[in-house]
Amino acid sequence: MTAVSLKQKLRHKIDLKTKPLGALGVLEELALQIGLIQNTETPEISKPTIVVFAGDHGIAKKGQVNPFPQEVTAQMVYNFVQGGAAINVFSKTNAIDLIIMDSGVNHDFEPHLDIIDAKIAFGTNNYQDQPAMTLAQCEDALNKADDIISKIQSKGCNTIGFGEMGISNTSSAALLMAHFTGIPIAECVGSGTGLNDEGIHKKIQILSEVYQKYNPKTPEEALATFGGFEIAMLCGAILKAGALNMIIIIDGFIVTAALLAAHAINPNVLKHCVFAHSSNEQGHEKMLHALNAKPLLSLGLRLGEGTGAALAIPLIRAAVNFLNNMASFESAGVSTESENA
Ligand SMILES: O=C(O)c1ccc[n+]([C@@H]2O[C@H](COP(=O)([O-])O)[C@@H](O)[C@H]2O)c1
Ligand SMILES: Cc1cc2nc[nH]c2cc1C
């Protein structure tokens, strides 16, 4: 007799719920995925947490690829600490713990603030001149992220969403996307925080030159070349969360670019990932497609901060709750399809 796999057991449990077959659509796939991640028919979500990694980018100082000035990164970190940003509001709405990390903002934050200090440097180098960071800095970022995720998990969190803040980081993400997917850089570049058509054209020209200047040989070298510190930390955090068997919620364009790097280092990480949404940043859809990823939501968001991840958490809770708490046809005494239907 062949053993029934957990996947078959989960499918059976889902199919016996009081609903037509497949009627809970994507939530059924989500329940199945979470059951498989946790290796159980009765999964649970504990202490869902969003970590926002913030970092600055050398290229931002020139203002050629970013409509907002570099200072906005630090200003938004203060906004996070004061509870005024979209991610604060959505985390509160959905009872999610929120952690803010300084991965490399070009500002000295007062030590009493509720920010985890993981600063690698005060912003990356401008990759128009030299790689964004050294390989040693990149390794440092990966390792620091590793430690932080271990600490978060040891406090009982098994579901972690990732967000970021960093003026110019759609440029790094576009370069990484081109590198890891082979999609032409022009198709990877978008409006970011709001460039007009002329601005996008200039951004494509600048990033095409940068892209041609380098030939990174390893995923770590690609991260070090194109940056940024927050993206390298996201990559390390995703890898660690996968290794710790956590449910990983991927936010928008920049977090997905970090996942491309993580996936190149360890493709197994993908089975832990739930894709929260499809961002309005041009390129995100193709990036998701390259990963064969199906996003849960499509709300026209292009904010970052982990906002899409925060909005997806109720869906993840709903998937787990229906699997655990919905009645079966038998337990509820509901008739199944009649044979002549
Ligand atoms: O998450 C996304 O899909 C997304 C798309 C566009 C912009 N962003 C956010 O905007 C910032 C980067 O935009 P930019 O134009 O400065 O490259 C950064 O802080 C991101 O969090 C985020
Ligand atoms: C205001 C502002 C808020 C953000 N949140 C994430 N990226 C951002 C970029 C800007 C410009």
UniProtKB/TrEMBL annotation:
Coiled coil: none annotated. The chain crosses the membrane at residues 246-265. InterPro entries: Nict_dMeBzImd_PRibTrfase, Nict_dMeBzImd_PRibTrfase_bact, Nict_dMeBzImd_PRibTrfase_N, Nict_dMeBzImd_PRibTrfase_sf. The active site is at residue 305. It comes from Algibacter mikhailovii. PANTHER family: NICOTINATE-NUCLEOTIDE--DIMETHYLBENZIMIDAZOLE PHOSPHORIBOSYLTRANSFERASE (PTHR43463). This is Nicotinate-nucleotide--dimethylbenzimidazole phosphoribosyltransferase. GO terms for biological process: cobalamin biosynthetic process. Keywords: Cobalamin biosynthesis, Glycosyltransferase, Membrane, Transferase, Transmembrane, Transmembrane helix. Catalyzes the synthesis of alpha-ribazole-5'-phosphate from nicotinate mononucleotide (NAMN) and 5,6-dimethylbenzimidazole (DMB). Pathway: Nucleoside biosynthesis; alpha-ribazole biosynthesis; alpha-ribazole from 5,6-dimethylbenzimidazole: step 1/2. SUPFAM superfamilies: Nicotinate mononucleotide:5,6-dimethylbenzimidazole phosphoribosyltransferase (CobT). Belongs to the CobT family. NCBIfam families: cobT_DBIPRT, PRK00105.1. It comes from the Bacteria. Its EC number is 2.4.2.21. Pfam families: DBI_PRT (PF02277). GO terms for molecular function: nicotinate-nucleotide-dimethylbenzimidazole phosphoribosyltransferase activity. It catalyses: 5,6-dimethylbenzimidazole + nicotinate beta-D-ribonucleotide = alpha-ribazole 5'-phosphate + nicotinate + H(+).
